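Hey, resending since the last one bounced:
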Amino acid sequence: MCAFAGLISGYLAEVTGRGYPLDWYEWVARSVQSAFILFVWCSLYFSIKTWRQVTRERERLLRAEGEARDARLSALRYQLNPHFLFNALNAVSTLVLEGDSAAATRMLAQIGDFLRTMLDTETKLEVPLSDEVAFVEQYLAIEQTRLGSRLRTNVSISADTLDALVPSMLLQPLVENAVRHGVAPCLEGGGIEIRSRRDGIQLKLAIRNSGAADQGMLQRRLTTGIGLSNTTERLKTLYPDSHGFSLEWLALGGCEVRIELPFRKAETT
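The structure tokens again:
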């Protein structure tokens, strides 16, 4: 607008300085030129103003969507806490009824440490895989107290995946399912295996159990339990089009859960 005002001022100065009136075609040409410049500047001004409004509205919608996503993930995350606590306290009750007070006391202390870790990390949507594995190992220590030598574990985490970001409490409910439904029902016990590896831009995780005596019952429990449904919902919310989740029933017995996530490293501070 300032440029247009300057143009008009110059135009008037030129007309005044000439000392004689312009021909009609000069008036028309100058008027058309001035109108065109005014139109261009007005169009540019309103285009910039509209673009800013659209940008602000888009940012507001993105913030709203992000807040809604975080709220949903937090709700799903909190859903796991009472689920774990009920199962853990039920296990302690079993030890008390069996007269193993020392194991029950040790297990209560382990549950306390586990819950403290859970509360410290509950506000984080994603954590390094190394933190998630340490968290799962705390849980396995609790189950080891209950099951003793009946529970055999093998944690094989590739070194180049330790700082990869994963959803908080991704592994624990899956390992809990594997222990409760794939190991605990077997008199001879069984094994739990946790693996990770990097495949290009993908992080691949697997949780395997050796299998319960009743494979059909194991399938029904796993496919209707809270652990799998909660995990699939969180993966869909966090990585809508860039994740994989599958359940495979092994020919020799047992089950393997496979997860694929985008490989992203945690920021170092």
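The helical segments are 2-18, 24-97, 101-120, 129-147, 171-182, 215-224, 226-238.

Sorry for the duplicate.
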